[in-house]
Design brief:
Helices cover 62% and strands 0% of the residues. The protein is built from 3 helices and no strands. It is rod-shaped and about 85 Å long. The protein starts with a helix and ends with a helix. The mean pLDDT is 81.
Length: 55
């Protein structure tokens, strides 16, 4: 395949391996998911509080 590309006068350029470290949106989604997990930990017990006091 490489020979055909070079014979056609084109240049073959290889891409680096995928890494989420080089993709800024991956970092943003990581922070968003962490924030949502923390928010869920705070909000789930709150609605159950009044029901625990009913005899």
């Amino acid at each position: 395949m490489r020979k055909r590309i070079t014979d056609a006068g084109a240049e073959l350029r290889l891409l680096p391996a995928y890494s989420p470290d080089f993709n800024p949106i991956e970092m943003a989604f990581s922070q968003l998911k962490a924030h949502l997990r923390r928010a869920a930990e705070r909000t789930i017990p709150a609605p159950l509080g009044p029901y625990r006091t009913i005899p």
